[in-house]
């Protein structure tokens, strides 16, 4: 029992506690892992340390608006990336990073110049302002962002929050 407690203490105290971002030249690569469910988008921003291990820097979760939660899966996936990048633009603007996700369809969506509707076109245009490499990660290896996008909705959270274009 005591051994399990010490292991948990080490994991929480060292492995998942967010650290400070290092913008110095030669510092490790930033990695943004994003996932979503029909209610929210979750992400974890990590930075590689000297040994190549991903160290968490920031955890984030964004609740979707009622309208957004009714989007089709491809539209919802694109919306989540745009909303997360908009929220983190002061951190990621001008930084090359790795954008990780568990949906292969997102590569095609982001590389397709002509999309079927106006909001998706706006989101792609905004997302492409950032410098990143797209990386697909299998869902089974995507536990942290997956957990952050499934958090229960707080009754006090505002249903009438501004949409992507209104923020």
Automatic annotation (TrEMBL):
Residues 29-129 form the Reverse transcriptase RNase H-like domain. The keyword Hydrolase applies. The keyword Nucleotidyltransferase applies. It comes from the Eukaryota. GO terms for molecular function: endonuclease activity; hydrolase activity; RNA-directed DNA polymerase activity. Keywords: Endonuclease, Hydrolase, Nuclease, Nucleotidyltransferase, RNA-directed DNA polymerase, Transferase. This is Reverse transcriptase RNase H-like domain-containing protein. It comes from Austropuccinia psidii MF-1.
